[in-house]
Amino acid sequence: MRKHIKTAVAALLALSLSLSVAACSPTGKIAEGTWEGDTFTNTWSQIKLTLPENTRKLSETEISGLLGAGEDVLINDGIANETALNTTKARTVYDFFLYVNGGTASIFLAYENLTIWGKSLTIADYLKQLQDQVSQVAELGYVFLGEETATVAGENYTVHKYSVADQFYQRYYVRKLDGAFATIVTTYPVESESDILNFIDSIEKP
Q1: pLDDT band at 182, cuts 50/70/90?
Q2: Which of 75, 13, 38, 40 minimizes the C-alpha distance to 204?
Q3: CATH code 3.40.1000.10 for 2-202
Q4: Percentage of the chain with pLDDT > 70?
Q5: Cα distances (angstroms) measured from residue 124 to each of 4, 50, 158, 195
Q6: pLDDT at site 133
Q7: Helices 2-18 and 123-135: crossing angle, nearest 10°?
Q8: d(CA 75, CA 92)
Q9: Domain boundaries, the chain
Q10: Do the strands 73-75 and 92-100 form a parallel or antiparallel pair, or are they unpaired?
Q11: Model pTM?
């Protein structure tokens, strides 16, 4: 099961990192969150959560190994004071990556730098490009299930839901911030949907 979940996560990561849009002069900054014990806080993206039982946060090294991160990707080590990251070269910044329910599900928070992607890019544009990329890997069993809206920590997110090989669901929550998209991606077995949705509902404002 763990092998399957890592394959599903890696597939969507590869898709999101491969999206190509016109770039403009990159001068943006994205603020990283911090961990205090099992509690994560980012006042910039307005996200605070506490890890439930049987949930583990991945280290910077583990995330790098999973993503194969390059120069255009920054990973929050989770121990620095909350400061603005210099995202001159970074296209994507990963704030945290969690294994849930013993590694059978995952949740990660990433920021897509709009000074790289293009500040005129809308949420609809971004999700449409993702959907187009997914259609190119139909052999992985990705099926788009539709768009919905969700409120996370009092903020409105646009959500795209996918089925993956009839075994997993994947939800892609997107909100536009000043200079970035905040993106929460959840990947989980069908039978774990209520646990993951409860986790998302538990996220609060700092």
Answers
A1: very high
A2: 40
A3: yes
A4: 74
A5: 29, 30, 9, 28
A6: 80
A7: 120
A8: 9
A9: 2-202
A10: parallel
A11: 0.84
